[in-house]
Amino acid sequence: MRPSLLLAAVLAALPYAGSQAADPSPAPENAQVYFIWPHDGTVVNGGKFWVRMGLRNMGVAPKGTAVPNTGHHHLLIDTDPPPMTEQIPNDRNHLHFGAGETEARIELPPGKHTLQLLLGDKDHVPFKPPVMSKKITITVR
């Protein structure tokens, strides 16, 4: 086999890093992630608004930080939670706050939207058990 074909075969066999299965990191049973703002049912005038994220019984740390019981926020917009044993996708429906942010200004088009927070570990994988907020609905006018 030519070296270039061998390399192509090896690369094709490697899993995609964005959806790689992983062992979830353990989370304390009493850990909670929640919205400080907005609240369920909030009506936002204009498309830009602040999302403020809270966390109890764990710490917030940037991605890649290997400290037990710490993670970073992910905001799920108009989507269901991803598989709990894979990295959280990074797209317009799954916003990553890997620098350890606890608030962010986002913009959504007019209409009803669902928001949910999911805490990811150093590798963007949900904890076990998942540290996830309830799903809320907001309306943008």
From TrEMBL:
<feature type="domain" description="DUF4399">
    <location>
        <begin position="51"/>
        <end position="141"/>
    </location>
</feature>
<keyword id="KW-0732">Signal</keyword>
<protein>
    <submittedName>
        <fullName>DUF4399 domain-containing protein</fullName>
    </submittedName>
</protein>
<dbReference type="InterPro" id="IPR025512">
    <property type="entry name" value="DUF4399"/>
</dbReference>
<feature type="signal peptide">
    <location>
        <begin position="1"/>
        <end position="21"/>
    </location>
</feature>
<dbReference type="Pfam" id="PF14347">
    <property type="entry name" value="DUF4399"/>
</dbReference>
